[in-house]
Structures are given as structure tokens and as C-alpha cells.
């Protein structure tokens, strides 16, 4: 494999077919669904292996978190999109390759510039100071690339979601809060969530076959507080409740509707369908996706 710096390939709506037929789409979706299977019925607090690469990824995310503390928001007239975010982002832009080189095996160091692009794309946009599901997808793509170069392995599955992705979410929430980031391409009350999607998919998988907790329970604040440390889905609900005021049915209408679905496996299947339709098949999201040698725009071999 000759590694390359990934670039945008989807510049017009008609290019979307190229994306859906690409090796990148198949690999990305395969990665999401493999992790979905892996976390079914498992709590965040269950026992699983934590490899050295996972530890290094947690250190990397810890560094991003520390930089937020070192870059306080500035005084400015507008409430949203604090410009200190650009200072924070510039540090990541400068250090990304050095950070990524700590998690990539030495014999694959040529892949670092390619993989680092996905990390830089995963934390929001420094021009618009916004964050959305396309940035989240870039982080999943980053993890997918680390699997492809052998940095992460099959037995890292639970740690990828429960340790690495969960830590990523906590850093993103801190960015969103600290710099008052705008939701990118938000559909307002008609979207699932202003910022994230994947933790709802994997979080609903965790609940499959749960003996007592049903979808109707996640709108109950008592249930959320009691079980949030075990379930990603409830951590998401807790964050929404902290950030939004007013009745849940009004500010999070889609999630309110989901709470009426009878089983978690139905919720999980429905969210996967919705993710494809609302994120992966939407031009405004995918026009920013980058393709290289690891996630290739080439069509899947028939």
C-alpha cells in the first residue's frame, strides 16, 4: 500500500453514488456494524482487555482535553462560537502527526500523515466553529484506519467503544460547552441530537435483551441518573438534559418518539437505518469526507 494524504472526492450531489459504491463506504459501515455486534448486551463497566494502543489513544485524548484547560474562552460580543477554539485547533493542527505517531506501529509510520488527517477532521470546523455528525464520522474513520494498519485488533472492540470512543465523546462535550460550538447542519428538533449519532446506535445495542430497562425508561430522569455509568445511551440523554431546557418531547422530538418503540433491537435497527439516511447519504455531510489509500473512493470489487 502506498499511503497518501486523504482528499475530498464528493464535490457535487451526483457524486454521492460514487461514495455509496466505494470501498470506503463498505469498510466504514462494516466497522460501525462490527462494533455494534460487539457491544450488544454489554455494560460500560464490564471486563475487557485494554491494550497498549488503547492506553496511548487515551493519552492522546487526554492531551486534547488538557489543551482545552490551557485555552480558556475569550471575551467576545457573540455568545456562540468562541474564537479561542481556533487557538485550541491550531495546536492540534500543528501536533496531530506527532500525536498519531505514538499510536501507529513503527513499521507503518508512513501511514501517519494519512491517518492524522482524520483526527484533525474529527474535532469540528475551525472556520465555522461548529461540530456535527460528519466530524464524529471522521473519528470513527480514524479508528477504522488504526484497525487497518494493525494498531488496533479484533480483541480491542469493546475498548474501542467503551474506552476510546467514550473518552472522545467527553472531550467533544467539553469543546462544545467551553467554546459554545454551533451544531453543524443541525436539523433542529427534527434531528436525533445536535452533535452526535454513533453513541445512540452503540448505546441502544448495549441494552438489547436487558431484563428490565425498556426504551420507554430512558426519558425517566431517575433511570438516567441511576444507570448512566453503565450505558452510553443514557450518558447522551443526560448531556441533552443538561444543555436544553423545556419539555423533552419538544427539544428532542425524535428521541421522544424512539422511547415509544417496544424493543431495543428495533431501536437499534431503526437507528442504523436512520444513520445511513440522515448522515451517510446526505451530501452536506459527505462532501467533507476524505478518501485515501486506507478508506478508498475506488468501487468495491464485485
Walk me through the topology.
Layout: E1 7-8, H1 16-20, H2 23-39, H3 52-70, H4 84-101, H5 112-121, E2 130-131, H6 133-148, H7 157-178, E3 182-183, H8 198-206, H9 221-227, H10 232-243, H11 248-251, H12 253-258, H13 264-280, H14 283-286, E4 290-291
Parallel strand pairs: 2-3
Antiparallel strand pairs: 1-4
Helix pairs in contact: 2-7, 2-8, 3-4, 3-7, 4-5, 5-6, 8-10, 8-13, 9-10
Q: How would you sum up this structure, described in words?
A:
GO terms for molecular function: ATP binding; metal ion binding; peptidyl-prolyl cis-trans isomerase activity; protein tyrosine phosphatase activator activity. This is Serine/threonine-protein phosphatase 2A activator. The protein has 302 residues and is an all-alpha fold. 55% of the residues lie in helices and 3% in strands. It contains 14 helices and 4 strands. It has helices at 16-20, 23-39, 52-70, 84-101, 112-121, 133-148, 157-178, 198-206, 221-227, 232-243, 248-251, 253-258, 264-280, 283-286; strands spanning 7-8, 130-131, 182-183, 290-291. Helix 3 packs antiparallel against helix 4 (84-101), helix 3 (52-70) runs parallel beside helix 7 and helix 4 runs antiparallel to helix 5.
Amino acid at each position: 500500500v502506498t499511503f497518501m494524504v486523504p482528499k475530498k472526492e464528493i464535490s457535487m450531489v451526483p457524486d454521492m453514488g460514487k461514495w455509496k459504491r466505494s470501498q470506503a463506504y463498505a469498510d466504514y459501515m462494516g466497522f460501525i456494524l462490527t462494533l455494534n455486534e460487539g457491544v450488544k448486551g454489554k455494560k460500560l463497566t464490564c471486563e475487557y482487555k485494554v491494550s497498549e494502543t488503547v492506553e496511548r489513544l487515551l493519552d492522546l485524548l487526554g492531551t486534547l482535553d488538557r489543551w482545552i484547560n490551557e485555552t480558556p474562552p475569550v471575551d467576545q460580543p457573540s455568545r456562540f462560537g468562541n474564537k479561542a477554539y481556533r487557538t485550541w485547533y491550531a495546536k492540534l493542527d500543528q501536533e496531530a502527526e506527532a500525536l498519531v505517531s505514538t499510536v501507529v506501529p513503527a513499521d507503518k509510520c508512513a501511514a501517519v500523515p494519512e491517518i492524522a488527517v482524520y483526527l484533525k477532521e474529527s474535532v469540528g470546523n475551525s472556520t465555522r466553529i461548529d461540530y456535527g455528525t460528519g466530524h464524529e464520522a471522521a473519528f470513527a474513520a480514524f479508528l477504522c484506519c488504526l484497525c487497518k494498519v494493525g494498531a488496533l485488533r479484533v480483541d480491542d472492540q469493546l475498548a474501542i467503544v467503551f474506552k476510546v470512543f467514550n473518552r472522545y465523546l467527553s472531550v467533544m462535550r467539553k469543546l462544545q460547552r467551553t467554546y459554545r460550538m454551533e451544531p453543524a447542519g443541525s436539523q433542529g428538533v427534527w434531528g436525533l441530537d445536535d452533535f452526535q449519532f454513533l453513541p445512540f446506535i452503540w448505546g441502544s445495542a448495549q441494552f438489547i435483551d436487558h431484563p428490565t430497562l425498556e426504551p420507554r425508561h430512558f426519558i425517566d430522569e431517575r433511570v438516567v441518573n441511576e444507570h448512566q455509568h453503565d450505558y452510553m445511551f443514557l450518558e447522551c440523554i443526560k448531556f441533552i438534559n443538561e444543555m436544553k431546557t423545556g419539555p423533552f418531547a419538544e427539544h428532542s422530538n425524535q428521541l421522544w418518539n424512539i422511547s415509544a418503540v417496544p424493543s431495543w433491537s428495533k431501536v437499534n435497527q431503526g437507528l442504523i437505518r436512520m444513520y445511513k439516511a440522515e448522515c451517510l447519504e446526505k451530501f452536506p455531510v459527505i462532501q467533507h469526507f476524505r478518501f485515501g489509500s486506507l478508506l478508498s473512493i475506488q468501487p468495491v470489487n464485485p
